[in-house]
Batch of 4 targets.
Target 1
Amino acid sequence: MVSGLLRTGRGSDLASLTTTATRQGDHYVIHGHKIWTSYSDVADWCLLLARTDKDAPRHRGISAFIISMHQPGIEQRPLRMINGVTTEFGQVLFDGATVPASQMIGAPGEGWALAMTVVGHEREPSTLGYSARYGKLVRQLAGRVHGDAPEELAWAAVQTEMLRLHVRRRLSEQLDGVSHGPEGSLDKLLMTWVEQSVGHAALAVGGADDPDLLSAYLYSRAQSVMGGTAQIQKNIIAGRILGLTE
Ligand SMILES: Cc1cc2nc3c(=O)[nH]c(=O)nc-3n(C[C@H](O)[C@H](O)[C@H](O)COP(=O)(O)OP(=O)(O)OC[C@H]3O[C@@H](n4cnc5c(N)ncnc54)[C@H](O)[C@@H]3O)c2cc1C
């Protein structure tokens, strides 16, 4: 299994990432760390972004590698989430891990472009199957309600249907060869709002006593952070779609 993209050593400000990959013969040697790495506990490989040229402009000094997780110099530390789960995430520390130069993806300095392509896809709901998951949970919640449904559930049902239709439109556009680029940020914001509405509905129907529904609510809070925070998506929409500048 390949873990998520490792934006090592930085969060929102990816261009200033601090993890380094230093060329030594036909290998690169990695030093740095990354917290919140999805599935690092089960990954055999991960996609690593690291700085290969500290003198280049920030965006141009980053390269991408596919690196084995099974080697000395890599430590995976589990993290405990608020819902009690200790798998699924970890902090990954690199202390002299190596990767063959042949496992660089693209050319030196092309890591930024690759990362932007990856997050562009990551932010589109159409490719992630989230919409179906939200719809399934809303139907399950509706099945548990006897009498009047709470307002939160009605709102979640409306939003879920809206996202389903939006995803269908996006898929049609993709079939027509349309590439979305920064519009993925609109999708990510939409997806976040819907997941958090569904999370509120789960809490309204199950209360804090139902562990599965409480977990659905708690997990929904992470959606506005993972894959780039809601504030960063708004910055992208303002700057790259609406053309607003400071
Ligand atoms: C469930 C989950 C899974 C994740 N999986 C992965 C993974 O697989 N791989 C990976 O590399 N990372 C992963 N992450 C990390 C995620 O990408 C980062 O948490 C995220 O990009 C935010 O970075 P940060 O946590 O360092 O927060 P920061 O960047 O420190 O941001 C803190 C706060 O400041 C705000 N902020 C920061 N800069 C600006 C700005 N310029 N304008 C306005 N507001 C700003 C942010 O919106 C946020 O509210 C995951 C995170 C979560 C929660």
Note: The pocket of flavin-adenine dinucleotide is lined by residues 4-7, 11-12, 34, 36-38, 222, 225-226, 228-229, 231-232, 235 (CB under 6 Å).
Target 2
Amino acid sequence: MTAQPYDVVVIGAGIIGISAALKLQQKGKHVLVLDSKGVAADTSAGNAGAFAFADVIPLATPGVMRKAPKWLLDPLGPLSIRPAYALKILPWMMHFWRASWTDRYQQALTAQAQLMALSKAALERQIDSVDGQHLIRHEGQLQLYEGEAEFNAALPSWQTRKAHGVAFELLESAEAIANIQPGIDPRFTHAGFTPEWKNVVHPKVWTEHLANHFQSLGGTLTLDTVQSIELSVDHVRVVAAQRTYQAEHIVLATGAWSKTLAAQLGDRVPLDTERGYNTTLPAGAFDLKTHITFSNHGFVVTKAGEGIRVGGAVELGGLALAPNYKRSDILLAKAAQFLPSLKTDQGVQWMGFRPSMPDSLPVISYASCSKRVIYAFGHGHLGLTQSAGTAELILALVQGKMPSISVTPYRVQRFQ
Ligand SMILES: Cc1cc2nc3c(=O)[nH]c(=O)nc-3n(C[C@H](O)[C@H](O)[C@H](O)COP(=O)(O)OP(=O)(O)OC[C@H]3O[C@@H](n4cnc5c(N)ncnc54)[C@H](O)[C@@H]3O)c2cc1C
């Protein structure tokens, strides 16, 4: 049975799909969102909740491949490959290596900075449009370094942020750090503080708030699992487990699960997942004043609702392998060393699937086969951060208008 026709069917109710659906509905489109599990049921629920506009530097930096073996040798270090997935990740790694060459890196850096600038401004518009100010924390971010050598090695990255307009203060003593966040082990002697950094009070609550607003404007949310997408001259049919839906356009926002549906449409995308782990501790676990990043250990400590979330790490292990929660244990044990008064009991462990492209840029693009199909996936570590900007670009692509920034760097064909 085919449901009534829609202007747009958005597949995926994570932060990207919901943000795009909301923007389209606000501009008068008749929008349906389909998801197999519900709003923010996966990665968009358990992330660290940061609008990380300062993080303009792609992961594939020049020279990164020389550092990777050291990280990979530690099976519980910040970066790991599950042995059962080692061969499958090779094509992604090859593209990652190529993306780290200076020419590609510079292009990706510019494109990332442009999307960040758009997303930062778009977020303010989005917050106003949904009366969402009460769900945003303005507490900055502290990026910590153990000693002068580690700090000096990071200075070029701070210069790059400066060149892209990121405001920050560099701190060169444990006392200066303690003025912002007491309770950090004194081995951390240096830091960069980004005062304009923002967080949501809770990523699931934020996505649900946007989804409620979408529904209050007449948008529809339906639980269904999409199996295929069929094109005809004047519309698109979305074939799902419960029924078939028809629309003028579809937006594919299925995060780390987007590869199969894109392949059905003829686009082979080097999308994979960087699995991440965390533990959420109950209220009172630590008196946290700001979002803390332990960059060289690959994890953050942040607020999630009333609780404290300790999480990060990158595990290359695909979508099917069971989680290895030893990673959450290790991050929590490190956090307890670095924040000696952290109470580590009664934590809830979680693993999520970052949808990652090798060049750290998302796919925001028409499908190769038709302008009726628009892709919005692959935001990696930055899906929440770039959600409002992505939504504005998707609106322009649906309307057939010129986007406010060039979408050429995010096109699906860039790896072909
Ligand atoms: C540990 C960790 C910390 C992070 N911290 C941050 C952070 O602080 N800031 C930040 O910006 N980003 C962060 N991220 C990244 C961020 O969480 C992701 O980039 C973002 O959630 C991706 O959103 P999405 O909407 O693309 O995908 P998802 O949230 O994964 O949503 C995709 C949806 O598609 C649905 N779906 C899949 N296939 C189908 C189908 N066939 N039919 C119907 N529905 C389908 C799924 O059910 C799912 O709900 C973090 C990630 C991790 C793992």
Note: The chain has a mean pLDDT of 96.
Target 3
Amino acid sequence: MARLAQTHGLTDVQQEILATVRDFVDKEIIPVATELEHRDEYPQRIVDGLKELGVFGLMIPEEYGGLGESLLTYALCVEEIARGWMSVSGIINTHFIVAYMLKQHGTREQKEYFLPRMAAGETRGAFSMSEPGLGSDVSAITSKAVKDGDAYVLNGQKMWLTNGGTSTLVAVLVRSDEGHPEGTAPHKSMTTFLVEKEAGFGEVRPGLTIPGKIDKMGYKGVDTTELIMDGLRIPADRVLGGVTGRGFYQMMDGVEVGRVNVAARGCGVAQRAFELGVQYAQQRHTFGKPIAQHQAIQFKLAEMATKVEAAHAMMVNAARKKDSGERNDLEAGMAKYLASEYCKEVVEDAFRIHGGYGFSKEYEIERLYREAPMLLIGEGTAEIQKMIIGRRLLEEYRFQG
Ligand SMILES: Cc1cc2nc3c(=O)[nH]c(=O)nc-3n(C[C@H](O)[C@H](O)[C@H](O)COP(=O)(O)OP(=O)(O)OC[C@H]3O[C@@H](n4cnc5c(N)ncnc54)[C@H](O)[C@@H]3O)c2cc1C
């Protein structure tokens, strides 16, 4: 039988990694995900298992103790994990973005210090751009760093940190005017600081408070928090890359690979919704036959499967483009936009196929229905993706008349 979301041209190593992760998802994640989600419980056993599999170091170079795998391998693993439970892919995602930013932009000392710990999953990453007053408009950041001797003093409030409580390293983007004259464009006066802290809530380092978990409609289990900096002192050698004023570009680079990752999550959740819908449609009978035998339901299944295939193909394309060393902002933007919209639609169709039972917490689709909307927002909303896509199209198709 032709299964959905197959990827051609994978190496033996890639196939082996994927098979291992798929097996872990089927045995260790799917059976417990809904129960843990309803209790909003952090999936510690699952995280420990993924640590053992080396998933936290998938893309970290081998010289730093990781597996040195490609973005494609990583994205395909994320797709599998999200098929099991989207929150688990969220636990890995911010870690992956911070490791990627360190690999691309860190000083040698920063890489040597952080990457081996991150590959082992001992140091766990979160990243922080958003503030209470802004998300899409990163250039409006108000949190600030001021130079004081051989350190910087950070003040301000951050919002929506995925893994804010459980992480021990946060890449924080703030404004830093030092060395940048008045009137410098906002994106040229921002700096990423590598902030180490204790895991947990409350004052996790002098001058740094993580107030507690934000109560969310879905995406439970993984902690999402605020972060308050009040005279937080960070040594100058914890400026990412050692030079101020580059933070905006570093973060955008991280978010770009993050977008492929969110697309992969959309693919995984949509696949699971399709699996649930196609199973239920063959079990539930109305008017003397399984509902799968009604053409209206078959059409729904056909539309859902087509969307799963299309999103997977675009996500794979975006990952391969990045792996080839080329710019992939257009492909990543398109993949993220399409996969998250299709995910929402496929989940809704699977929900409808379940009839009234889809509304019951006993059925997995109820959880997916609350999880899918997060993908429309995280790593840039649909409108922001369309702005990126539109701008790039006008570059590529510049009118020559
Ligand atoms: C569960 C969760 C986890 C998150 N994790 C993180 C994290 O780990 N780190 C982090 O830094 N952030 C995180 N975020 C924040 C997330 O990135 C932002 O919520 C997102 O970028 C949108 O920003 P906003 O919420 O401020 O919406 P706004 O920017 O206020 O946008 C509101 C609406 O206006 C639209 N809009 C905005 N500008 C334009 C425009 N120019 N043209 C047309 N439409 C526009 C948007 O598309 C949206 O529909 C998380 C958010 C959530 C919900």
Note: The first strand starts at residue 125 and ends at 128.
Target 4
Amino acid sequence: MTQNEHSFGFRTRALHAGTPPNPLSGASTVPLELSTGFVFESIEQAKELFSLRSYGTIYSRMSNPTVAACEEKMANLEGGLGAVATSSGQAAQLIAVLSLAQAGDHLVASSQIYGGTVTQLSVSLRRMGIATAFVPGTPEAMRKAIRQNTKALFVETIGNPSGTVADLEGLAAVAHEAGVPLIVDNTFATPYLCRPIEHGADIIVHSATKYLCGHGTIVAGMLIESGRFDWGAGKHPLLSEPSPSYHGICFSETFDEYAFLTRARMEVMRDVGACLSPFNAWLLIQGLETLALRMEAHVANARRIAGFLQSHPGVAWVAYPELPGNPSYDLARRYLPRGAGGVVTFGVRGGRPAAEKFIEALELWSHLANMGDAKSLVLHPASTTHSQLRDEELAAAGITPDMVRLSVGLEDPEDLVWDLERALAAAEAAGVGGAATG
Ligand SMILES: Cc1ncc(COP(=O)(O)O)c(C=O)c1O
């Protein structure tokens, strides 16, 4: 593709970027290369590859041709310099953090993020000596929490599950003022609805398990970097000082704009080992091909569901960033002009018991721990994805006991509404309806 002559649109790139037809076989799909290792041309080439003097495929823990095709497509869609695929979204976050921070360092994260990320940062990484301050994800609050040893800011484009939209440009300005990168988890938005790098973000992480794959079949993650951040400025010694793990290589000096991606892949991924399997990369490529179409349909159905819930007497409140009066309304208009995603949260009148009754009465909506599937899913965050959080962390994340999270799928909207209506009636009939207690 000659991008210099013509600038291709998102749908075209989702289909073609990184995955041209195979010149040997003519196959139009990327071959699934299930090979652990790759034959060296010579002793000299093997030495060059292992010492990072040349770039190539050594072993599938660090790189694999099918995984590389998927990485190239994702980097292209996010507008980044490159990507590293990981075994899960959690692994993408871990590798992002360990590529720039070590014991004694500090991060600032929004408190309105996925519960698993909160515990990863507040328990596991803290045990490893990397502390995180959780604050409201506004530029002002995050600026105040920055310390001398802060190495990055972390937010979600659309917070899980609150739907809080991040002020990406404001946050990028705060991060850059402090000489640190802005890491954005873009799982809920996907690059079709928002490309945070265009708004100043430096590192993007994804749970590719969700919309990117889109069919609820795999667990996968992705880490993308803009290539714009100056890793040699001295704030991140892991990148600017000699590494004992490669005979004193200095990543920022040797790899310039590729410093972060090279360290993430060749040092952190090498040692952590949370790589994406080629088979899952292959499935992810299939999912990415239709991302634009699916996101359009998720958004259309979510709008319909949010409107239906707003007008239902059994519903205490509805949160979807596009609804007038939602605290993120203005930010959604600015950063998510194509739509605010496929997640709608709401409170069932009658609080937690009513929410539980409602979920049990649904037929079409699957009660399971995932989102971004083609099928519609429902969950009670306080007792599942965010159940490890303490009460004050739940409150900071905007999670109430009556909150139900809907991941609106691609079914006929009339059928989704039919099922919601039935389940709301069942919650009311069970006598748990009434004034919201959540
Ligand atoms: C916003 C967000 N980020 C990261 C993750 C973790 O991803 P994974 O389950 O692929 O490890 C999740 C999982 O629900 C999520 O919702």
Note: The chain has two domains: 3-288, 291-429.
